[in-house]
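in:
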């Protein structure tokens, strides 16, 4: 994934027309039996490939779930015949994988058809060896290069990259977007807390004489605290409601800067609300506490 793609004409039983999903043919790959485990592509049903799936044995294929649903609906795809390219002999579907992305992190799940590498009769644009590391993959890269160089001189300059390096250019824009949003949020929160603190302090100072009279008449500290905080609490609730409405309204504009996340996600909104309420509470509690002090 993310390195090369091969499309192929695919036919199903009973249809003279090649299968097209979203206006394009399914993508094709020839892989070894261990490929699905190495790449982390889970089988939803059926089986993967076996060492016995070689040239001369029954032709088999594994297809993606969206391809199976498009081609056969609710029917079980296992055991169905497909026809690849100009080959009119049956290739039997033996497994179904979950959907995946092919060339970009942000794209609709692509339709795939896989065949065993040992049975492949079609030209591939590139040969790629996938290695799944249990430790830091960067430490494996020199070892893999040495193995390649000792195997064949043509492989001495083989390119070895980690999946992190492959997706880094695609991930960078969302990382920058998330960083920018975080910095703006921190700045906005700081300005809001500072403004509320100053507003409450001015409000308490302007009503100092009133609070002194109320305290002399028997008003307790909690009563004075409520009188000082009530206007700020109402303004805070109104501000949060307006901010939520604006966030939902502009969420589509910000979507390209976020990866599989939305400004309007309930968890994000709840977290932001809790942080804002906590910050506002810290800002407004000290001035009223000063006002309720009998001294």
């Amino acid at each position: 994934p993310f390195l090369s793609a091969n499309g192929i004409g695919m036919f199903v039983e009973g249809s003279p027309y090649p299968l097209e999903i979203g206006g394009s043919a399914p993508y094709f790959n020839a892989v070894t039996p261990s490929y699905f485990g190495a790449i982390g592509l889970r089988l939803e049903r059926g089986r993967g490939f076996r060492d016995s799936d070689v040239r001369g044995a029954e032709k088999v294929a594994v297809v993606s779930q969206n391809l199976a649903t498009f081609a056969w609906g609710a029917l079980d795809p296992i055991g169905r015949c497909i026809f690849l390219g100009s080959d009119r002999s049956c290739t039997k579907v033996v497994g179904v994988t979950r959907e995946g992305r092919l060339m970009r992190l942000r794209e609709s799940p692509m339709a795939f058809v896989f065949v065993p590498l040992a049975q492949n009769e079609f030209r591939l644009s590139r040969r790629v060896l996938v290695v799944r590391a249990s430790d830091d993959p960067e430490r494996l890269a020199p070892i893999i290069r040495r193995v390649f160089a000792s195997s064949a001189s043509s492989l001495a300059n083989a390119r070895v990259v980690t999946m992190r390096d492959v997706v880094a250019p695609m991930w960078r824009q969302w990382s920058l977007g998330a960083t920018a949003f975080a910095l703006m949020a921190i700045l906005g929160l700081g300005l809001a807390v500072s403004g509320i603190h100053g507003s409450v302090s001015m409000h308490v100072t302007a009503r100092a004489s009133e609070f002194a009279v109320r305290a002399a008449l028997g008003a307790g500290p909690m009563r004075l605290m409520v009188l000082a905080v009530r206007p700020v609490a109402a303004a805070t609730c109104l501000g949060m409601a307006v901010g939520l409405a604006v966030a939902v309204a502009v969420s589509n504009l910000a979507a390209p800067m976020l990866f599989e996340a939305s400004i309007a996600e309930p968890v994000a909104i709840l977290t932001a609300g809790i942080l804002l309420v906590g910050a506002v509470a810290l800002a407004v509690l000290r001035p009223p506490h000063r006002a309720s002090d009998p001294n």
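note: The chain has seven helices and eight strands.
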